[in-house]
Amino acid sequence: xxxxxxxxxLDIVTYGFLALGAVLMVGPFLWMVSTSFxxxxxxxxxxLIPPTPTLxxxxxxxxxxxxxxxxxxxxxxxxxLVTVGQLLTCxxxxxxxxxxxxxxxxxxxxxxxxxxxxxxxxxxxxxxxIFKWLHLIGTSVPLWLPAFWGGAFGTFLLRQYFLTVPRxxxxxxxxxxxxxxxxxxxxxxxxxxxxxxxxxxxxxxGAWNDLLHPLIYLPAVPNTTLTVGLAFFxxxxxxxxxxxxxxxxxxxxxxxxxLVFLVAQKQFIEGIALSGVKR
Amino acid sequence: xKKLLFPFLLIAAMLLASCGGQATPAGxxxxxxAPVELTFMMWGAPEELAVWNKIVEEFQTQSPNxxxxxxxxxxxxYWEKLKxxxxxxxxxxxxxxxxxxxxxxxxxGVLKNLQPYLDQNPDLLTGVYPQTLEAYQTAEGYFGxxxxxxxxxxxxxxxxxxxxxxxxxxxxxxxxxxRKASKDLTLDTNGDGVTxxxxxxxxxxxxxLAWSSAIWAYGGDIFSADRTRTLIGEPAARQAWQVxxxxxxxxxSMPDVNTAAQYGLDLYQAGIAAMTPIGHWAVPGYNTVAFxxxxxxxxxxxxxxxxxxxxxxxxxxxxxxxxxxxxxxxKFVLSPGGQTRLTELGFAIPVLQSVAESPVFLQQxxxxxxxxxxxxxxxxxxxxxxxxxxxxxxxxxxxxxxxxWTGEAELNPTLDEVVQAADEVxxxxx
Amino acid sequence: xxxxVVPKGRERLTLWLMxxxxxxxxxxxxxxxxxxxxxxxxxxxxxxTPPRWTGLSNYVALFTDEKFTRALLxxxxxxxxxxxxxxxxxxxxxMLLSRKIRGVSIxxxxxxxxxxTSAVAAxxxxxxxxxxxxGILNAIIAFFGGKGLCWVCSDHILTAVLIVxxxxxxxxxxxxxxxxxxxxxxxxxxxxxxxxxxxxxxxxRITVPLVTPSxxxxxxxxxxxxxxxxxxxxxxxxxxxxxxxxxxxxYSIYRNAWNFFNYGGASAQAVELAVLIILLMAFYxxxxxxxxxxx
Lengths: 279, 430, 295
Hints:
The complex is a heterotrimer of chains A (279), B (430) and C (295). In chain A, α1 runs antiparallel to α13, α3 packs across α10 and α7 packs antiparallel against α10. With 279 residues, chain A is an all-alpha fold. Helix content of chain A is 73%, strand content 0%. Chain B is α/β, with parallel strands linked by helices. Helix content of chain B is 42%, strand content 16%. In chain B, the strands form 4 sheets. In chain B, strands 1, 2, 3, 6, 13, 14 and 15 form a 7-stranded mixed beta sheet that branches. A 4-stranded mixed beta sheet of chain B has the order 8-9-7-10. In chain B, β4 and β5 form a beta hairpin. Chain B is globular, with a radius of gyration of 23 Å. Chain B starts with a helix and ends with a helix. By secondary structure, chain C is mostly helical. Chain C is 73% helix and 3% strand. In chain C, a hairpin with a 3-residue loop joins β3 and β4. Chain C is flat. Chains B and C meet through α1, α3, α11 and α18 of B and α1, α5, β3 and α11 of C.
């Protein structure tokens, strides 16, 4: 096949597949949006466009006083702190694990991975007890402080990424007299922007959607995070099958995450457009 | 080596720490004017938080040196948080207890014995419905007190009844009447082979809603008197199970579990089913529905009429530093003033007879249903069982019965297995 | 594995400073997670009274615990199908999205949407979609002349659960691969193009080998997620108060820890879960040695 034809076929396949997949990906989301604008009587109707569009579900959300703005603020600053903490500490650790030779490297890394394997439901109480000793229960500190102690997921992700950077770069910088930290900061970090962006997205989202930890460390509504507040509010609705208000609530908690994604995804464009490594 | 010693010490210390946080000497003199701060944790809906804050406000005008911080969470979150705090030795001073779980906590020593306070206040419990106090009585006295109670009654959708020309449920209804009416109210409105409206729906996992009442009405019981044997597989009980089974699979007037799942957890509220047995806690939520509805007592079985009574109560943590003040708050909530405020919430029924039988409860603003039905049901209500290991037992039974209600398993053989599993739980928890 | 830069003199200090936060975290993680869980698994603890030492009895009990075995099998079945689906589909999507086509960032956002939706919300929507009589999915199937299925009944529940979980995971996988693909130096492709290589040649000789680090990473993470999957599954399969028609391991752990006053047993289950994952990890690392290329 000629080069042009090959490209054309691939383009058609690409668009076709992507379009079909996109419908599947976005479909439920569209359904969520649609239901949140429907009247409760229509909630089981099979039409995408609400027969009678209404804002009453959103009004219902804000009518009950659960302190929505405060919840939103709490979720935001906690998630931001967590993201910053993870980006910094995981990058440093990943650099060490990927690039630097030191004794115990493999052992420590394996240990790190093992901490990933125990589900949160079980580590909850031992961690809670530790924070109780530190008299930090009731504050948001237990929610973001651990983010500044590295993390298995982030370190793992960045380590994989750092491993793909060619050794020649490191050797070249060494010959130019760069110190370890300078190699980290000037060579690896700029190259890792796509991975850092990815990590930022995941970390922010994980912190934002976290239900269990804010639940036990923070006091109840209204001094807690948005997810806890929504869950509290939604329990009744789930029991009563009031999907319309539930969907409205879910929608409002998604929007910030979407924003973070849109901002961070620009890094991918740069990463792909940049030609990578110059030799 | 130091690296190994430290973690072990830490673990040992942690384990020891969970021993701590108990037995602070009771009756510390609350001298001085410094306001005492109490934490009161409960489960509920957002609307309840507002009313409880009001109750607290009134309490504080009466006792200005006691400040109560109310924390409300949803049901699941509540127990997670509570258990975490108890495990770490930092319990809230006062917390809400669902009667069936009471013994699980009381037998483990985390609740304060309120008997000394009751001895000092002998009139506090006169005027409280005795059926609501039963659950909290132990050999050493009361470790908790009821706050409000629930009886299960039959809720029905008047519009659906009118449309189908079926007479409303009465106090004389039997389970046969229930069956017949359900059949008449199950409709396939557009002839597509799919039922759009069901006559009856019920949560069959938790005994409180439907099946305990049915078993009692047929002359059976849930446990033997000494709580060592599960009796839900006895002949009388099986008759009761058969009623629901036939309604679900023969009459098809009750949706099976998988079909019901698509409508959320409450088909009655969603306007899909005409009747459901449930308690007063559903009333405020139901008040927002588009159809007219009312309540009737649970139907009679061959052994008479029966329903289930349960309560939400107060307990004081054994580790609380302010038990005296906590009890003051309990006293306030059990007083006519406190009970009146609670009633205005609409979720539950006050335990104080004088308030329950007054217009405050019987003619609540905004509701046009017959509230008296809830009170009259007390006459034939059986207490929802309270015992150690309740959750595990209920899971053994509820989970075990689910395959029946999805149509995948046979009723009688499964019941045999379930009874066996349930008895094992009972044995484990003696 | 790889050789590395050897730190010189004072750089040792830099090294340990950079590692200190992670080391603190490890101490916490090792204590809070690993050691505590191990220790607690050897006790009977009801959360309210002090733990009682019982040795290995919790582990022995697991062998005869029917509910646990059922949960284990469900988890295996689920993971075996879930991990390959996610890795393959994410890679395909990422590959397609890294070509120069118009509207790529719109597509990217669309594919990421599921990952951003909270599990509760997503499960509710899917519950509506899967409804036997009221659900959109069956309506679409009927539109094409097929017969609607009962997606939440036991014969199809695994499929339903898979669909929802894979749906939710593709967004993240896609991002990982996009980042990984971005790391491949463009010169390789340009050089290949000059040599006259076709698209498929470029794919198999350049892309595939160089994307193996991401495949390795995603496989591990996805496997861990698969074994720990809980949120979506529970919300989809809730029947009554706290029961699930498709129990998985974490569900069993949760129930034991929080409902049955059996924290010791729950810890034992968590340990067994971790051991299983570690065994799989060992397998993955063996594969890494042979098949993953870093440069």
